[in-house]
């Protein structure tokens, strides 16, 4: 079977995008993992199918690089919105379905503004915060992210006794640069490595910074692969709503491959 695919990246978090409105992609963990493999396949942090969804512009079906269907992916969501825009599915504003529910987004030439699901208040532990922004996120503040061993510590937390048995967690390391400006590095579950950016991760870090320092929206975040911005509103109930993840999402290339040969 001949597969047409597109490669997108959002601040260096990269994805294989497939227009699967005909639902003909032969989903299997093995195939997805192989396509995402950086030596045997195309190479990506994840694979996303764009499918039809009645009542919405499209549905985003996201798989981690290990081939398992993942929880919400913020940068993947932004890339899927750019892909839908490139396909002519919408002009300026879209409403689509993802694994954690309905999302809205707007596109302009430079960036995608994606509305994230509401988030409950952050869980504050002695040495870290924990938030679910569509995916689970451990957030730890450090003095210097560049001097942090993201993979070793990230892996220990992801497989550790608290989160390991619960399906694991993504692990973010946060450095305060100046008021409303963070620098973040993330170990991603499902990729099992550091990625250049994690959208649900920086969202968790921005909400955590509100709890720690009382910072108001928006918060700017520098990640390895670029810059993102997070807007939010804290409700009386303690919940966060009107959360937006804003930043670039870019088509890198498109290609064709014979599935049977990979
Ligand atoms: N890169 C993604 C996160 C994917 C979530 C996944 N790593 C998991 O929790 O299994 C993002 O931009 O939000």
TrEMBL record:
Keywords: Amino-acid biosynthesis, Cytoplasm, Isomerase, Lysine biosynthesis. The keyword Nucleotide-binding does not apply. Substrate binds at residues 13, 64, 74-75, 170, 188-189, 199-200. GO terms for cellular component: cytosol. It is found in: Cytoplasm. It catalyses: (2S,6S)-2,6-diaminopimelate = meso-2,6-diaminopimelate. The active site is at residues 73, 198. Belongs to the diaminopimelate epimerase family. Catalyzes the stereoinversion of LL-2,6-diaminopimelate (L,L-DAP) to meso-diaminopimelate (meso-DAP), a precursor of L-lysine and an essential component of the bacterial peptidoglycan. This is Diaminopimelate epimerase. It comes from Salmonirosea aquatica. The gene is dapF.
């Amino acid at each position: 079977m001949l597969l047409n695919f597109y490669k997108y990246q959002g601040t260096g978090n990269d994805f294989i995008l497939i227009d699967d409105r005909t639902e003909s992609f032969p989903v299997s963990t093995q195939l997805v993992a192989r396509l995402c493999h950086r030596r045997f396949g195309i190479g990506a942090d994840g694979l996303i199918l764009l499918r039809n969804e009645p009542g919405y512009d499209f549905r985003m079906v996201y798989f981690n690089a290990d081939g398992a269907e993942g929880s919400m992916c913020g940068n993947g969501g932004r890339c899927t919105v750019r892909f839908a825009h490139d396909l002519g599915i919408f002009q300026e504003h879209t409403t689509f379905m993802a694994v954690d529910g309905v999302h809205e987004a707007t596109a302009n030439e430079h960036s995608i503004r994606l509305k994230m699901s509401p988030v409950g208040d952050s869980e504050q532990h002695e040495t870290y915060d924990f938030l679910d922004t569509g995916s689970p996120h451990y957030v730890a503040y450090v003095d210097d992210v560049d001097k942090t061993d993201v993979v070793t510590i990230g892996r220990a937390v992801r497989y550790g006794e608290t989160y390991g048995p619960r399906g694991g967690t993504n692990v973010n390391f946060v450095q305060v640069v100046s008021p409303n400006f963070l620098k973040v590095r993330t170990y991603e579950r499902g990729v099992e490595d550091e990625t250049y950016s994690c959208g649900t991760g920086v969202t968790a870090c921005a909400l955590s910074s509100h709890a720690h320092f009382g910072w108001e929206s928006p918060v700017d975040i520098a990640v390895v692969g670029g810059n993102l911005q997070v807007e939010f509103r804290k409700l009386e109930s303690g919940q966060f709503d009107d959360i937006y993840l804003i930043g670039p999402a870019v088509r890198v290339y498109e290609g064709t491959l014979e599935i049977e040969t990979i």
